[in-house]
Amino acid sequence: MSGPVTLTAALTGPIATKADHPALPVTPDEIAVAAAESTAAGAAIVHVHLRDDEGRPTADLDVAHRVIDAIGERCDALVQMSTGVGLGVPLSERAQLVEVRPAMATLNVCSMTFGAGEFLNPADEVRRLAARMAELGVKPELEIYDTGHLDVALELLADGLLVEPLQFSIVLGVRGGMAATPENLLSLVRRMPPTAVWQVVAIGRSNLPITAMGLALGANARTGLEDTLLIRRGEPARSSAQLVARLAAIAGALERPLNSPAQAALALGLATASSPTP
């Protein structure tokens, strides 16, 4: 399969800290600089997690506004806000982040064990969040960590809480979710609606081979310091932009041109690249 590809840069995530990687962006300005660098390297979308002044995951709306504004001042990337935030933040707080009206936001459809913690997404709150995102025109990016998560997402579609084309991230390699294997990837891809847009989110050492597999299958792709801190075994990545550039080179070798942010917005059916903050 061929055709244009949309690359996403996952800049920060909820787990790693500056102690794990000094280049991890945590302040609004650092996140915005990383977004601009990643966009220059080929990303059309930046996946954003927020941190407070102590570097901890936060769902603070003021921080969200500051980050979105700072990114908009430096580049034209589409902002995909994470409503996952961090394992200790309840969904009732995380859900408020869609009120800043990013172009997209994640929708985690199920609770699960996540590493050594618990990622709690109560079913009734997930349904309310899906409905609110539809009201605001925020595109849900459905994060699928296990096979049953796809079934729940399809139930939301059947109940009218989601609108096709669905946008999926198949997350592989999180302890408590699916292992990062070709078999697990293919089993989910075969069950997705034919109109679905999807990408692989492969964690840690599986980031490059499984993401490259997704590109070869015609999918979009994501990488960044949230997903892996290494550019190769034993060598830390300099930045998310370096990881994006590696994926861009693979896409080029597969003769798949990169979508710009504007082209990605059209491909994903977004009304606007990003709504201005009030």
Task: Describe the structure in your own words.
This protein has 278 residues and is an alpha/beta fold. It has one domain (7-267): Aldolase class I (TIM Barrel, Alpha-Beta Barrel), CATH 3.20.20. Helices cover 35% and strands 18% of the residues. It contains 9 helices and 12 strands. It has helices at residues 28-41, 61-74, 91-94, 123-136, 147-158, 182-189, 207-216, 240-253, 261-267; strands spanning 7-10, 45-48, 78-81, 104-108, 112-114, 117-119, 139-144, 167-172, 197-202, 220-223, 230-232, 235-236. The strands form 3 sheets. It has an 8-stranded parallel barrel, surrounded by 7 helices. Strand 2, helix 2 (61-74) and strand 3 (78-81) form a beta-alpha-beta unit. Helix 1 (28-41) runs parallel beside helix 2. The termini are far apart. The relative contact order is 0.19. Residues 273-278 have low confidence and may be disordered.
